[in-house]
Amino acid sequence: MKKNIAGVASAVAGIAAALCFLGLMAIPAGASVRPEVGVVGQWNQPMCGSNDWERIKLPNTELAVIDSAGTCVSSERYHGSFAVPNVLFNTDWQFPGMIAGYVPTGEPTCASSKDTCYTFPVQQKHDGAPLVSFSSWIAGGYQGNESLDIWFSPVESRHSIAARAGDTELMVWTAWPGVNARSLLGDDVTIDGKRFGIMTWEADNHGQQWRYVAYLWLNAPNGSKGRQVNVSGLWLNPFFRNAESHGWLSSDSWLWSIATGFEMNDNGQTNNIHNFSLEGLPTA
User: Distances from the Cα of 60 to the Cαs of 56, 101, 149, 278, in angstroms?
Assistant: First the structure.
């Protein structure tokens, strides 16, 4: 996921997700936590190539687990989990994660499996009430973020990375250790009693421009030591509505994809997402 984003070290990505309802909970420092180094099972496969992916079947969704430049991904087929067992080399803003839907970024997604994933796009004004929940482990010394990355498009038909002008990429960072983004934060917004700083600009990649919006949880567990984070009932609609209220997103846009993963700059080995669920999305 390469994106020319002013500041944040030629940064990447933007997404708005929405946290309302039960929200984000960090396990207090000093709590007894055993990191989940990886997921194991009959179908456990390390993935280190740019075209590798793994289907995960959840009750109402299918997701593609992908890797990104220089990162191995370990996943268990048909379970909402993945881990980073090895980082071959550090590449700014690589994004190993789980993707539901179609992302026009050149990454292997559902589109590369001949539409085996659940129906997308969904018109954003009929986007249901999507809820995301997961637990995660963030390695000590990790530099990057843990985030949701959501893509919207003004058109219904699919398009490539070379034709994504006018798209909106909305991101919520649930943790962002080692990233100096505070100087770039603009307005704050309170959602479910929690404060989020907002970064937004027109991103550009080889002349293709799209709106980037990121919501950063200001009290995220960003210490240098390993941390576990629990996200419970993360309701996406309030973030969509907030972006609309600022003119960053149109209510006529089409929701194309929801991804969950890590934008990694340094380290990240043993990072993992587990107990993942995505509910409340219409599939037609």
Answer: 11, 13, 19, 8
